[in-house]
Amino acid sequence: MASVPRERFVRAADRHVAYDDIALGIAGGQTISQPTIVAIMIQELELRRFDRVLEIGTGSGYQAAILGELAREVVTVERVPELAESARQLLGRLGYDSIRIEQAGGILGRPEDAPFDAIVVAAAAPRAAPDADKPARSRGQTNHPGR
Q1: Of 81, 78, 73, whose CA–CA distance to 113 is shortest?
Q2: Nearest-10 crossing angle of helices 81-93, 62-70
Q3: pLDDT single digits (tens) 112-143
Q4: Would you call 105 helix, strand, or coil by DSSP?
């Protein structure tokens, strides 16, 4: 996590508290999770360097960037167009070529890109795609809040 500049993923007005262990507001009425929650969610995935990961809820792209440091490929899905585009631009500027951001409507998931080795749900969705939380690989891990 130390290699990902969290201050780049928060609003300019919040940069002075970017490393505090608190959630911060971002565009679209969404939040960037506090660092300990991100760390716990990712640690529970038990990622390996060659894993493919699906993230539901891109937000500002912070968690995707951390996943990109740990896994071979990250596909992340965001339903708020403004967030998807700003995360795509920021992650591109930071050189995260192994992360692909998909903008989705009311259904979140990427069954067409399966199988994934791990799935992390960082946000709630109005509806999940069929089998969105069932990675096809035998070692597959799924982690989302409240589960």
Answers
A1: 73
A2: 50
A3: 888 899 999 886 655 555 555 554 454 555 55
A4: coil
Instruction: Tell me which residues are annotated as active site.
Output: 33
Q: What is the CATH number of domain 6-143?
A: 3.40.50.150
Residues 123 and 107: their CA atoms lie apart, in Å, by 12
In the chain, where the domains are located: 6-143
* Whole-structure pTM value: 0.86
Instruction: Give the separation between CA 103 and CA 92, rounded to whole angstroms.
Output: 16
Residue 90: burial class (beta carbons within 10 Å; 0-12, 13-18, 19+): middle
Residue 2 phi, psi (nearest 5): -65, -25
Instruction: Read off the amino acid at residue 83.
Output: L
